[in-house]
Amino acid sequence: MTIIYSYKNGYFEKTHMKREVELVVISDVHLGTYGCRSEELLRYLSSINPKKLILNGDIIDIWQFRKSYFPESHLRVLKYILDLAYQGCEVTYITGNHDEMLRKFGKMQFGHITLTNRLLLDLDGKKSWIFHGDVFDASIQHTKWLAKLGGWGYDRLIQLNNVVNWVLTKFGREKYSLSKQIKNSVKKAIKFISDFEETASHLAIENKYDYVICGHIHQPQIRRIDTKKGSCIYMNSGDWIENLTSLEYNQGVWEMFSYDEKKDVLLDYPAEAMQFRSNLEELLENIIKGTL
């Protein structure tokens, strides 16, 4: 645990304890869209002290980026991630389809931040293959305009869902996910998810990877897949729109973190500790100059 102290009444007082985490993987945050749950993500990130943070695609939604909508809480997520890098956390940004404009830069590194299209890691002697996963999505590869239209429609659906859930909450009812209901009731959607997981896993097995970690389909998952050629562990970090999940690795073990299941035990981060070391421009300048 990392302990945060604040100075009160002439002495230092312990205010917060962060969980130490070796590696965290999050994906599909979609900053810049109405569905992004930035406040919940900030609360989660501020409760942990990760050595490595992997952002596995679609963190900033460049597809749907608009100047008229990028609230302060979304900017605070970016500031907080930069501040983690400033303090020594190794941050890897893997590009996805909604932030594919960043792919033209290839692999870049400045300070403790790395921009790349995929990541290979050796974790306690086991090989991990980490990438966003949109390469398996034919609708994106061949009809990008249709995929972008689908992304716009999904954002509108989330907006409608937020209104529905606000009404349900007022009447003391449980929240309801329209998109999950649609996915679960459409056989093609279920088959797509299954095919996605199988394809990623079979390729990982053929290439002798022990773990394959994706995002893209917004379906949190950890499961073992066996074939005649071998086996691997398929994992998906889910998203921060509906599922609010991440993958955590500690002492050789992978676990799925679910915000909805753990939010009651997450400590509220003290307001004074949420002050960033400097503004966004200064953070970027210091990181690029390598003054970490």
Automatic annotation (TrEMBL):
It comes from the Bacteria. Keywords: Cell inner membrane, Cell membrane, Hydrolase, Manganese, Membrane, Metal-binding. The keyword Manganese applies. The keyword Nucleotide-binding does not apply. Gene3D superfamilies: 3.60.21.10. GO terms for molecular function: hydrolase activity. Pfam families: Metallophos. Residues 23-220 form the Calcineurin-like phosphoesterase domain. Coiled coil: none annotated. This is UDP-2,3-diacylglucosamine hydrolase. It comes from Sphingobacterium griseoflavum.
